[in-house]
Amino acid sequence: MKKKPILSLYPWLNNYYDKIINQFQNKKNYTAYIFCSLNGLGIKFLIYELTKWIFCINKQKIYSCSICNNCILVHKNIHPDLYIIKNNIKQVPIGVDYIRNLINKIYQTSYKDVGKIVWFPNFKQLNIFSSNALLKILEEPPKNTYFFLQCNYKEELLPTIYSRCQFWNIFPPNEKISISWLKKNLQNNQIFKTKSIKSALRICNYSPINTFYLLKNNIWKNRNIFYNVLLSAFKTDIMCLLSILDNKHILFYIDWIYLILLDVIKLHLKIDLKFFYNVDQISIIYKIFDLIFIDKIKLMIKKILFYKKILIKINTINYKLVIINLLLSLEDIYKF
Ligand SMILES: [Zn+2]
Description:
Helix content: 40-55%
Strand order of the largest sheet: 2-3-4-1-5
Strand content: 5-15%
Distance between the termini: 69 Å
Number of strands: 5
Oligomer: single chain
Bound molecules: zinc ion
CATH superfamily of the largest domain: P-loop containing nucleotide triphosphate hydrolases
Radius of gyration: 24 Å
């Protein structure tokens, strides 16, 4: 009988699940695991499935039963031995007192007698002090207690923590797998051309989940209009872009301008079109290519990245003013 995938929603995670569960079955598992990946790969579902298996009292080989009390509690996210450590306000770090408190709790007996799991969905929320407090417990962990740490980059963890964990770098699935997954999952919605899906995937750093939501969003529907306005803004008045950029999707749009300019550079460098981000916008790329020299494009990209950083880092800034400054400085570059 063909095995059914554990993570049927996100099949690219199955291999990681199998390998880690095999370690547990062969008693060669680690106490702490790091999952390092870009956002939008569904890692939290992998961690839920691993947690379910560890807690399940009626496991069938690599499968958890999904119907025992423990499986149901994990599924409902209310298992008393699962500690999810995060601060809902992104910028506020998890302090040392919080970790000390956690340590006290996990040294007590587990509620369900199936061990304990401590999960950090965003490890970079720990500062140096709370990381060091956690390190102590990783050095001498209580029995049957496991730690799942999630990060975007290895550098977010102290080397001493890293050295006590098994590290899993989780990469996006290859483009072919992602495209067929997207086609399957989008089939009840609008029909997309492969080139359009491919471009969205590349724009979303190959995250199939983020691509799925982007393709369903209205801003994707209006993408052709956006690029035509961009072109006409370059030809006539850059301020035509202001009304489009001045909204909550500003970072998306800035990325789109950045990526299409990168494609124009690729065209200048005679790179094969199949390697472009925007494979569905080749005619716009050619038009910008005819309009602006490569050296100017490079300077424009620098400016875009500079203003993007400002928009991300400073919460209290007047967005409109930043956008006006960005547009005027782009105009200064390509017009003179
Ligand atoms: Zn179960």
